Amino acid sequence: MGVALRKGFAEYSPIIDLLVKTRKKVKPVLIGGDPGLTPILRWAGSKKKLLPILLDQALGECSGVYHEPFVGSGALFLQMKAKKAVLSDLNPHLMQAYKQVKNHPEAVWEMLSKMPSNIEFYYSLRQVNWITLNSIERAARFVYLNRFCFNGVYRTNLNGDFNVARGDGHLGIPSWDIFKAFANRLKKASLVEADFGVSIDKAVKGDFIYIDPPYVDLTKRNRGEYGLGSFGAEDISRLARAANQASKRGAKIMLSYRHSDELISLFKGWNVRSFDVQRTVSCDIAKRHAAKEILLTNY
Ligand SMILES: C[S@@+](CC[C@H](N)C(=O)[O-])C[C@H]1O[C@@H](n2cnc3c(N)ncnc32)[C@H](O)[C@@H]1O
């Protein structure tokens, strides 16, 4: 198994070493879904549950480019029939993993599908320093840790090391059908690791932008969800400026966020719709209450 997985990488690989040690002890678990419509990641803040509302309000036809500057798991992108897309996110590990999935789906899935589902393997893999891995191994490690971590949260310590505990419940990796279909959808997309401003500033008339930023909570310490310092209160006005300028250039835009009068006041003349949603990121079940969300559109 080790030799087959290396595919030309002669150097020592800590992942192959781990796989050889745990071989046959615990089987991997494969998870199904609708190929082409199912994301390969479980992403905290994913809009999977809001899809009916988002699809109802999203621009049906887009003659230009579909932009998703906070792409995460890309739940809405998969539902949209855009001919051209620019998917971007500030998380470099996420975007690097997507690039490998797009260009080498078989190799990433071959490695991923050999990874067992037990707790010991999760923590051993989490401990492996990603710097020591080749690109395929990094992508497989990223997807595995995301699939088995607590609620699909991406959080790092001050050194930038992923430090989310393993989750529980029915966890597994996406089946090959899902993986392959997702990779095929990525073929039409440009993948960019960048701040939201880069993608929004490029949008022009005929383009559609779906903006789904992290929710800033000024009452809580930033615990590094989505990476330390990735999006804070000061970014809200920067985002509003970029979106309003793209709107003036003729791009059609939809933005989802938690209810915030401050945010609404920055989007003068936009349509605002409110709805309730069940929050699931908290590990405290008692705190998983319904929360008010908003959807802003400039059309
Ligand atoms: C709410 S999640 C998006 C979820 C996505 N819509 C989905 O359905 O999975 C917010 C995303 O913003 C990304 N992010 C945080 N700060 C950013 C920034 N300054 N520029 C671009 N992306 C950023 C995070 O990495 C995260 O993937």
CATH superfamily: Vaccinia Virus protein VP39
Q: Spell the H/E element sequence.
A: HHEHEHEHHHHEHEHEHEHEE
Q: Into how many domains do the coordinates divide?
A: 1
Number of strands: 9
Shape: globular
Report the bound ligands by name, code or SMILES: S-adenosylmethionine
Main sheet properties: 7 strands, mixed
Query: How large is the share of residues in beta strands?
Result: 15-25%
In spatial order, strands of the major sheet run 5-3-2-6-7-9-8
Q: Briefly note the CATH topology name.
A: Rossmann fold
The CATH first-level class comes to: Alpha Beta
Distance between the termini: 54 Å
Q: Could you estimate the helical fraction of the residues in percent?
A: 25-40%
Q: Examine the secondary-structure arrangement and name the CATH architecture.
A: 3-Layer(aba) Sandwich
**Average pLDDT figure:** 89
Could you explain the architecture of this structure?
There is one protein chain. This protein has one domain: Rossmann fold, CATH 3.40.50. A 7-stranded mixed sheet has the order 5-3-2-6-7-9-8, with helices on both faces. The relative contact order is 0.17. The chain is of the alpha/beta class. Mean pLDDT is 89; it is low at 1-6. It is globular and about 60 Å long. It is 35% helix and 15% strand. The protein has 12 helices and 9 strands. The N and C termini lie far apart (54 Å). Bound molecules: S-adenosylmethionine. S-adenosylmethionine binds at residues 43, 45-47, 69-70, 72-73, 75, 89-91, 195-196, 212-214, 226, 230-231, 235.
